[in-house]
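Bug #77: duplicate submission created two jobs. Keeping one. Sequence:
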Amino acid sequence: MLEVILIRHGETDANRSLRFQGHADIPLNATGLLQSGRLAQAFRNNGILHRVAASYSSDLQRAVQTAQTSLQQTPHAAPMLQPALREQSFGVLEGLTFEEARAAYPDDVESWMQFSADYALPSGESTRQFHERVMGALNDIALAHHQKAPENSCVLVFSHGGVVDMAWRHLTGQTLSGPRTCEIPNVGLNHMRWDGRRFHLHDWADARHVADLPEQPRYDQRKLRGR
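Kept job's structure:
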């Protein structure tokens, strides 16, 4: 089966301050660049670089920078950019912390915190729309490489936390409603396998390559209602 490795981008200043990013085009911070360098080392140590058939990335610069930094010593330093791999759009809340968003848009935030699959923030997209976009892109990538990729090869996909969440829900059969339930570390390795028809979960949230770096900021949707 073809292996597809899904990777969340490195840290940004917006991650550190727990701001809604969405489609906002925010670069990596110094920690994010360091994490991406560690990702390159993990690729070498795990033998992944020798198996890469192709690499893809969201077109937002935090994902592109992560891809380019971690692949700079390989022929795959220029990943194919896919806007469909972007983070979920949070519309009017982008750039705000949760507290700022709740103060500026209390009714919208209250509705969003119900985590309904079909609710979309003003100028944003619903989780269901987001899921369809993401899984459509991942399926297309897998189909494009399933037949022609050499045996034991892999495809790297650099993207965002919400994209990892959508894949996790799909793989584990979880509903699209409700808060996130899986860990989504920056530059974590999330392994899926494609059998020609669908994805299977192989390994998830492997971030051992950055375990000794400063603790990552945690965005826990399950705790937001109590804030």
